[in-house]
Amino acid sequence: MILAIDMGNSNIVIGGIDDSRTWFVERVTTNLGKTDLEYAVNIKDIMAIHNLPLSSIEGAVVSSVVPPLTDVVLSAVKKITGKTPMLVGSGMKTGLNIIMDNPKTVGSDLIVDAVAALKDYPSPIIIIDMGTATTMSVIDRAGNYTGGIIFPGLRVSLDSLSSRAAQLPYIGLNRPARVIGKNTIDCMKNGILYGNAAMIDGIIDRMQEELGQAASLVATGGLAPSVLPLCRHKINYDEALLLKGLLILYEKNK
Questions:
Q1: 22 & 107 share domain
Q2: 143 in a known ligand binding site
Q3: CB atoms inside a 10 Å sphere around CB 4
Q4: CATH number, domain at 53?
Q5: Which of 11, 97, 242, 253 shows a CA-CA span of 20 to 30 A to 159?
Q6: pLDDT > 90: percent of the chain
Q7: Helix (H, G, I), strand (E, B) or coil at 223
Q8: Is 109 a catalytic site residue?
């Protein structure tokens, strides 16, 4: 089993995966104040919850968009496994042709998503990753990564709305029963959830127009289950997409 870790701005996804199955996918809060020991305990506890011994870890791979924490988590993994993790970055063999103004600026999480999607879905592909930011990446019919868009994630939008308007409360993101809200909380929740669903639907339409054909649609990220049921397009949800991509990159570069 490979220990696969994706470090995002809000959450760190920790998973165990091999060629046959995904053993677990868990999330811990990204905290710049934690030490390598604290993250090591987090990983060890997750393994224990799933009744998996540390000895079952054959290797580890990490992707990160949080530079201040990268070395901390790498150290944590080595502390509990005795193995030096592989880090996704420039110079790594990906097999992905990136057609961007500056390919080196493409986030490692977007590359990992794209590598996994190319294996499991026919091109062209639109990949939606819903985390702190919502990203929509495009792979053309030839399998090239050609770009995408980035907009604020659900929680960022909601927290900004609540913090900047004194009379608007902080709310959860459970699924609304109807579009038209009957109270302030429902109006806010519906605006965020249906607004993001409509935005995703609209961007998919425009991207497919530019591609000149329908695309495979796949979404991942912790907030995706809150929005996808409200979208009018049929979008495949793949919780383990990042882990699958990390496994592919590990196998290509070990």
A1: no
A2: no
A3: 29
A4: 3.30.420.40
A5: 242
A6: 69
A7: coil
A8: yes
Is 108 annotated as contributing to ligand binding?
yes
pLDDT, tens only, 206-253: 999 999 999 999 999 888 998 999 999 999 999 889 999 999 999 999
The active-site residue, picked from 109, 113, 140, 238, is 109
Whether 193 and 235 share a structural domain: yes
- Phi then psi for 193, rounded to 5 degrees? -75, -55
* 253 known ligand binder: no
206 and 181 within one domain = yes
Tell me: is residue 160 an annotated ligand-binding position.
no
Give pLDDT tens digits for 13-70.
999 999 888 999 999 999 999 999 999 999 999 999 999 999 999 999 999 989 999 9
* The pTM of the whole model exceeds 0.90: no
| 223 and 130 fall within a common domain | yes
- Asked, for residue 172, whether it belongs to a domain, the answer is yes
Other beta carbons within 10 angstroms of residue 171's beta carbon come to 15
Within its chain, how far is the Cα of 249 from the centroid?
16
Average pLDDT over residues 173-193: 83
Beta carbons of 124 and 139 less than 8 angstroms apart: yes
> Does position 167 have pLDDT exceeding 80, yes or no?
no
110 is in an annotated binding site: yes
d(CA 114, CA 100): 14
Task: Please state, in angstroms and rounded to a whole number, the distance separating the CA atoms of residues 125 and 112.
Answer: 14
